[in-house]
């Protein structure tokens, strides 16, 4: 599975854009974009949205990929990473149910 930066590079190359062209279109430093593509830096949320617009990609899908990568970075070195993710999933499910219940009342 490719990481977020590799995915951005693939999309850029598919559209025949040079690194400097995409960076200029996004008002971003070329070196910074290069670091994102190589996985040395993490893009910010607003940059992910800008990537989606500039590369004509689904914003929601890119955001999901970006968020998932942030979560992986956070727990990847933990001994019980799968258990941690399962607990987080349960908590999110519970929060979602509470929000739906509050909206229906």
User: Which stretches are low in confidence, meaning pLDDT under 50 for 5 or more residues running?
Assistant: none
CATH architecture of the domain at 4-76: Orthogonal Bundle
Assigned CATH superfamily of the domain at 4-76:
lambda repressor-like DNA-binding domains
Largest sheet composition: none
**What is the approximate shape?**
globular
Mean pLDDT, rounded to whole units? 93
CATH classification class of the domain at 4-76 = Mainly Alpha
Oligomeric state of the chains present here = single chain
**How large is the share of residues in beta strands?**
under 5%
Distance between the termini: 42 Å
Q: Percentage of helical residues?
A: over 70%
**How many beta strands in the DSSP annotation?**
0
- Specify the structural class: mainly alpha
Order of helices and strands: HHHHHH
Q: How many individual helices?
A: 6
